[in-house]
Structure formats: C-alpha cells, structure tokens
Amino acid sequence: MVSKRLPAVILITASLLPSSVSAQQPPQNQGLWSVYEQATKGAKHIDLTHAFAPVQPVWPGFGQAEFKATTAGADIPDYVKRGEEYTYAKHGFVATSYVLTTDQYGTQLDPPAHWDEYGATISDLPPTFAVRPLVVIPIQEKVKADPGYHMQVQDVLDWETRHGRIPEGAVVMVRSDWYKRWNNPKHFNDKPFPGVSLDALKFLHLERKILFHGHEPLDTDTTPTLEGEAWLMHNHFTQAEGVANLDQVPEAGALISIGFAKPLGGTGGYARFVAIAPADWPYGVTVADASGAPLPKQSAPLRRDEHGAMRPTPGAK
Amino acid sequence: MVSKRLPAVILITASLLPSSVSAQQPPQNQGLWSVYEQATKGAKHIDLTHAFAPVQPVWPGFGQAEFKATTAGADIPDYVKRGEEYTYAKHGFVATSYVLTTDQYGTQLDPPAHWDEYGATISDLPPTFAVRPLVVIPIQEKVKADPGYHMQVQDVLDWETRHGRIPEGAVVMVRSDWYKRWNNPKHFNDKPFPGVSLDALKFLHLERKILFHGHEPLDTDTTPTLEGEAWLMHNHFTQAEGVANLDQVPEAGALISIGFAKPLGGTGGYARFVAIAPADWPYGVTVADASGAPLPKQSAPLRRDEHGAMRPTPGAK
C-alpha cells in the first residue's frame, strides 16, 4: 500500500522519466538541480533563528554584545580619514563593527572545542554540516505542566511510534516552546527551564546516530554540572542552542539547512538554521513567496538605534 | 534520447516507486527526507568558505579582527570572578571573544543595507536563502592571460551553450582561481584583479533572475566607483565575496547551502557556503566520508596562538 504521505519528490520525479526529460531542450547537465526544481523550490521555508542583538538573553557568566558603526581602519586620500565613521551620505556605504564578548550568543552551534581541548572547532566541521533530515520531538505539553521537564528516551520512542525510526545523520530538535520567552532577557534563563536528559542524548547519538540535537533554552539541562553538554562535548558531538520557531515545523519530513559563521578555531557558532518543509505544510514561505531578489525596501531609512543596531527609522535625516 | 548525465535523483527514485516503497516498514511520513536519502547524503560536499582569521586579506579601508579568550561578564559565587578568563582546566570550558571592526570580513554575503539606506539587512533575508542551484562560470583561463579580466555577458552565454539556461533563482559563482592568493594578505587586493562587468550583473539579474552572484576577490570590479556593487545594492540585490574552492565544483548540477551569522540589522554577512555536487563528482566528501558525529579529535590540545585563535598546539601544558 502506498502511504498518502509518499514523498512529493518521488511522485513528481516519476512523471519526469526519460521520455519527458528527453523532450526538453537544455539544461542537459542538471545533476542535483532536480532536487531544487522538484522538491525544495516549492517547499515551505521556516527560519529557526533568533537574530542576535545587543540586548538579549545570554548565560549569566557571559556579557552582551556591542554593535556600532565601522570607522576607517586607515587613511585613504581624498576619501576617508582613519577613525572616521562610514556613512551612506559621505562614503556611499556603511559597515558594522561588533564587540562580541562571547561566541555563545544567540542561536548557536556548539562545537566540541567549547568544552574539550581535543575537540573540533567550528572551522573544523566538515562540509556535510549543510542539509540534513530534521526531526522535531515535541515536549511542550509536558513543559506546560512542568517547566523543568527534561526530554526522556520515552519521548523519542513515542515519536518513533508515530513517524518511524529517526534517520541516521538527522538533526533532532526538541520543541518546548520556551523560545517564546526570548524577548524577556532577564528571565529567559531562570530555572526551572526545560531540558534534555543525558539518557535521551545518549540514545539519540549512540543508538540513532544523529548529527546533533538542538533545544530552545541556552543550556541543555538544569543539572549543576551540565551533565548533558559535558557528555556531548567530551564525546565529540555538537549541539544547537537558542533555537526558535519549532512550533512552525512538522515533527517529521522536513530538511534543515545548517549555516554558521566560520572563524578559524572558533569555540562557538553564530548560527542560522532554516527548516524546509513539504509544500503542503501550512507555515513558511516558498521561493515564489519570497524570491530574495530583489529584496523588499525598508519602510523608512536605516539608522542606528540606541544600541547600535541598524533599524528603519521614520523621520530620519 | 536519455542524457548520460540524467540526474541521479531521478534514476534512483525511479527504482523506488510504490511497490518497493510499500515494502518498507516505517518511516511512514518521510516527506522531503527522500531528498537526503536518495540525493544529498551520497553527494559530494565542498566547503567554499575561507575560515576568517585575525590576519587575512581585508579591504584597505577596514581593519583586522581581534580574537581573544572570553572573560567572565559577572561574578558567579564559588565559580568565577568578573573579568577572569574561562579555561578548560579551571572552569571546564572556554569561549572566544571577537572584536570585529567590520562585517565585510572573510567569505561574506553582502545585503543591500551595506550601500542603501532603504536596503534589506542581513536579518531581513528570507529563509529561502537556504538551498539553491549553483552555477559556476569559469573565467580563470582568461584571468591567466589578463589578471584584470572582468566577466562579460558572452562568458555567461558560452556557459549556457554548454549547459543550458541558467535556472531562475540560482546562485552564480564566478571562478577566477584568485582565491588561491588568500594566504598573501598584503597583496590579495592589489589591482588588477578579476572582476564582473556591470553588463554581466544586469544580465544575470534582469534576464536570468538569479538569487545572487559571488566572486573570489573582495570587490566586484576595479572601477573607481565600484559600479557593479553600487548597482546591485541600490537595486536590492545581494552578492557574495571572498568565495573559495570554486575549482573543485562542477560548472552545472550542484546545489549550494547558504549559511551566515544573523545579527539584527547587520550590514554584512559572515558567511559559509557549501557546494553539494553529484555523487560521481571527483572532489568533496559524502556523509559516509565525514559524518560529523562524532568529530575527529585534535592532534594536540587547543591553545590560543599569538593572534588569539585556538589551534592544536603540540607540547601544550
């Protein structure tokens, strides 16, 4: 029997077997482009990332970031003097300077080097950190009853009863809906907050061989020793923290695009994760909805706000 | 007639039509996971990103970045004093602090806000900046003869003669092999360097409706007004700069995974791009080659080098 949810890519490609392909003019060498044309172009894209900002939740032992205008690093005759701020009006462009007191900031991808002196750094991650199956395990109902609930192996098994075995190499995100408190920086890290049990992490990595797990809070669990993160990092696994919008993603059947800045030897990852869900999923945007070129104009000119971030500013001069 | 280069995804999915799918146990709801299982898991992944570093090529009007150890942002009783450096030995982890004098640094994705006060910022980019078809147009042979060669419309048309029409929404990278000079920071920006002509940019965006183009140098062209970048930014298009390893990617048939850090209102993008090429491509790694979990151990313990970057350090104490 054919599942009603048979992958769209299979159904569509079946209609494109040799006879219809040969009727087309070039492209002759489309290789993996059929994946885009037939599966991901019309898929629903959901950004799982908090934009990081000068004021936001951060672990108490770290500090906030500073955003400010870039100034000239050197004299360029007839153009700019060292130390002068670049402006749209005078120079035709702006740039931004950051003082980032920690790489554990915002939606992040922790490499093992964060905790282990023999661990891989962010620039050591292989290029296969790119596109993976995305599994979303919901614990938000249990968190409503107990904000300190930690995901158990049974939650994983319950997911598998509904959707089948977790694919090897998948990214497994734990949905707690905790991300909705992001705009309350002072209390985002208050305990209790939802976590992931060490047993569940071991099960996901050792039995299901996932790529990494992710969660919405900024710590993996509320144990005094952070036992889950310690086990992951010292066993050379990565993890994602501060993930957003998991309530807008299917539990099964989406892909995840894994992006991050790549500083040499980085011990943390300023990350951007995007879920790519089947075309019939109700949330998210397709390429037709948001092509990205050209991009929409701002409603008002950009100016730096009191924290140094460029924001549309009605009435700006 | 069937092309010998018929997409692998079609050939493979054809063997997985209903009868064989129904013979499987769960997963029942695999949605887009078939894209991974059948097309990208076994594909060749190539990182197109320079890891950014404290000393590297940068536009002369900007400055270098500073990397250093993160220190405590606050007292935590019995654990850390404000200002104390986090260490593996005492605290069980490290973190890194960055002073980034510009967001135009390393392999980057420029949003229109870099030049246009009504332009989209990096945090405005829609989630459809994720996975796209990758086109690589080679000009490296012309650059060998003339280092100041700028890609012309004819180079695009020649590519189309070989591979068919550029897909709408694609990312078009211009291969010049200039990236091989990255380790010579003092002279990377010396003129002449290879560029992209304004006519070619207009053709790619207005006639072919690409998502963005990218190039290996840190500027789009060598005109005094940077006419190409000016046109792109003021017409609300993005562009990639400082791209690497395009000599290891096919001219047609690969996908690109688009990643970047997402600061609120950012006027530049610290990016990471990964090409995903068909399985029979000679360069790159598959998930089987580099699963990413667990990651390899360092050959020696990580310590900060003289520029503040964590590097494996034989004999470290």
TrEMBL record, chains A, B:
One Pfam family linked to the record: Cyclase
Region (Disordered): 294-317
Gene Ontology terms for molecular function: arylformamidase activity
Keywords: Signal
Source species taxonomy: Bacteria, Pseudomonadati, Pseudomonadota, Alphaproteobacteria, Hyphomicrobiales
Signal peptide (UniProt feature, chain positions): 1-23
PANTHER family reported in the protein's UniProt record: CYCLASE-LIKE PROTEIN 2 (PTHR31118)
InterPro entries in alphabetical order: KFase/CYL, KFase_sf
Name of the protein: Cyclase family protein
Single GO BP term: L-tryptophan catabolic process to kynurenine
Keyword Transcription regulation: no
Presence of the UniProt keyword Signal in the record: yes
Gene3D superfamilies listed in its UniProt record: Putative cyclase
